[in-house]
Amino acid sequence: QVQLVESGGGLVQPGGSLRLSCAASRSIFSFYVMGWYRQAPGEQRELVATVTTLGTTNYADSVKGRFTISRDNAKNTLYLQMNSLKPEDTAVYYCKGSQHTNSGPMDYWGQGTQVTVSS
After folding, report:
1. For labelling alongside 104, which of 11, 14, 79, 118 has CA 20 to 30 A away?
2. What is the separation of C-alpha 72 from the centre of its chain, rounded to a whole number of angstroms?
3. What is the DSSP string of 19-42?
4. What are residue 87's phi and psi, to 5 degrees?
5. Measuring CA to CA, how many Å separate 63 from each of 35, 49, 60, 78?
6. Is the separation of the CB atoms in 112 and 37 below 8 Å?
7. Is there a contact between 19 and 8 (Cβ–Cβ < 8 Å)?
8. Distance between CA atoms of 78 and 4, rounded to whole angstroms?
């Protein structure tokens, strides 16, 4: 079992920046892909960005050019640098790690961190 703990959320003005972190309780090297997802009130959870162990990244169109995902396997931590934030980025942000097991793929989720973009 592995625990994922997000941090770095908060209140920021439009145009501002935040960096989210997701710390794992053990090595993240086994996660073939890790990602950030978000869920706004009354909305479904949506993908924000993912990164594989090889460093291949994928972004939602709504955040391309503004957000950057990265992972530090040595520190067992996933990051999301968010720049030029907009009110529509307001949501609870979750990190997820996926790994292969003998029973098939298994996903691990963090508890989420609130990001509020408002003046």
Report:
1. 79
2. 13
3. EEEEEESS--TT-SEEEEEEE-TT
4. -55, -35
5. 14, 8, 6, 17
6. no
7. yes
8. 10
